[in-house]
Amino acid sequence: MKSNADHENIKPSAPESSRGKRRSEQAKQGPRPPKKVTPEYLRNSGLYYLQRFASSTAHFRSVMVRKIDRSCRAHADLNRDECLQWLDSMIEDFIRQGLLNDHLYAEGAVNSLRRRGLSRRAIMNRLQVKGLDGETVNALLATHDAEQTGGVQDQDAGDLHAALKLARRKRIGPFATPGKDVDRDKAIAAMGRAGFSYDIARRIMDMTPDDLNDQDLRRI
């Protein structure tokens, strides 16, 4: 049983109206201004970003430049050119340490996106936006597709294999649930959004389970 002293030591919680007032005052003050960029702060921010996200060098640079620009707008004494020099030096250091490696990033992205069932065109577009060289991505796609198709050096074969992966995920074409109606036009449109040609989408939709052999199924 609690004594009167115990009750006296219990502080009443702030009324809801008081807490709401504090939140309202904080909202009026607006977001906190960005921290002032220093070489150490920039490096720590860069390391934190790379711990959370895989990134190409060009994309990483654009992320950090935006951070620098926000800080420069908030702190008039910052010199943007000097901050960019810090960034260039940091990026060179990260490349030497292997923290930024465009070839490994592109290789991992190609493998991941092909597994998800994206077309060659969609992958090329997505990775070039990230600042990766088209020739490098194209070569990695050729290597990946040859491994997945048993050595067949053919772009259509690679896309057909990736389209089968997408069909399995979407449960369409040869992977459709028996007895369940599939909207053919809608399924073809979904494959088009993934970057596949109408011809490949139509071929997938015309397939039956009997068209897939055991080797195909193991590779998909």
Polypeptide structure, described:
By secondary structure, the protein is mainly alpha-helical. It has two domains: 39-100; 103-219. It is built from twelve helices and no strands. It is elongated and about 70 Å long.
SSE map:
Elements: H1 4-9, H2 16-29, H3 39-52, H4 57-74, H5 80-97, H6 102-115, H7 120-129, H8 134-148, H9 155-170, H10 184-193, H11 198-206, H12 214-219
Pfam families: RecX_HTH2 (PF02631)
Keywords: Cytoplasm
Organism: Micavibrio aeruginosavorus EPB
Order of helices and strands: HHHHHHHHHHHH
Largest sheet: none
Mean pLDDT: 87
Number of H- or I-type helical stretches: 12
Q: How many structural domains does the protein architecture include?
A: 2
Structural class: mainly alpha
End-to-end C-alpha gap: 68 Å
Rg, Cα atoms, Å: 27 Å
InterPro entries: RecX_HTH_2nd (IPR053924)
Organism: Micavibrio aeruginosavorus EPB
Main location: cytoplasm
Subcellular location: Cytoplasm
How would you sum up this structure in a few lines?
Its main location: cytoplasm. By secondary structure, the protein is an all-alpha fold.
Kindly list the characteristics that best describe this protein.
2 domains, mainly alpha, 220 residues, elongated
